[in-house]
Amino acid sequence: MHPNDLRKALGKGLLSFPVTHFHPSHSLNLESFSSHVSALSEYPVAGLFTAGGTGEFFSLTPDEIPDIVKISKEVAGKTPIISGCGYGTHMAKLIARAAETAGSDGLLLLPHYLVDASQEGLYCHIKEVCDCTGLGVIVYNRANSQLTADTVLKLADACPNLIGFKDGTGNLDKVREITLRLQDRLVYIGGMPTHELYAEGYFGAGVTTYSSAVFNFVPELALKFFNAVRAGEQSITQQILTDFFIPFSQIRDRAPGYAVAAIKAGSALAGFSAGPVRPPLTNLTRGEITMLSQLMDKNRTFSSKTSSKLPSQPQ
Prior knowledge:
Blueprint: H1 3-10, E1 15-16, H2 30-40, E2 47-50, H3 64-75, E3 81-85, H4 89-102, E4 106-109, H5 119-131, E5 136-141, H6 149-158, E6 162-167, H7 172-182, E7 187-190, H8 199-204, E8 209-212, H9 219-231, H10 234-252, H11 258-269, H12 286-298, H13 306-309
Parallel strand pairs: 1-2, 1-8, 2-3, 3-4, 4-5, 5-6, 6-7, 7-8
Helix pairs in contact: 2-3, 3-4, 4-5, 5-6, 6-7, 9-10, 10-12, 11-12
């Protein structure tokens, strides 16, 4: 997919991050993963980010990422697949090329590993990754990789295939400066953990799409909320926030890393046994899984179609 076509496609609807499926031994379970991605692709989603943050990119080996991309492309139909990419510059370039060879439609460049960097260092890092591939690249503005508007503009001028800016900082004043200065040169994606809690504020800052992790297990609810945000239907968004997202965030916040583990637990409850998270993350306890199951049961009215799309819960 041409980078400009990908930019336009991603801005049209909701995005999501499929979880990466593992066997109990923590090896890849590509068969189960394939079924999950196939089912998610049946919904009107604008793109799927495989091997991303919710997909435990940080726990994957570089050799595993192309396999994940390849199987995603085989089953996703027309849904664009964007591969995670990251670590140091040299490794990020290797991952980028491998993902491109495997058929990815684009790249999400996650924050580099460990060290802080100057704006010039971030510029050089991102530019080298963009220069090594023909794929459209989205930068993830988060943690130790936070860009100023000047740097984003400089990168957009230097890299025709830089198509997107995803924010996970919550600094809406800086995000708004970027959206104002670059306008439609990029697609702007919300990337806060459980972004639905922030979606309305980001929408006002010019960020009109986002990645939904809960789409993995409550796709109808995720789509209903997204459409309500875009339509300004506050009565609907307030109800879903109160009934689902606030209590979900309380489960998520019970332990570090549950932003991923809770999504995997929800996926299993919806019929897709994604397996455990890889260390150093930990899985939800039995009691917490029960809490999540009860929350999902209370919100079945938003997921009336799920039973026809997802397989029955494994025993």
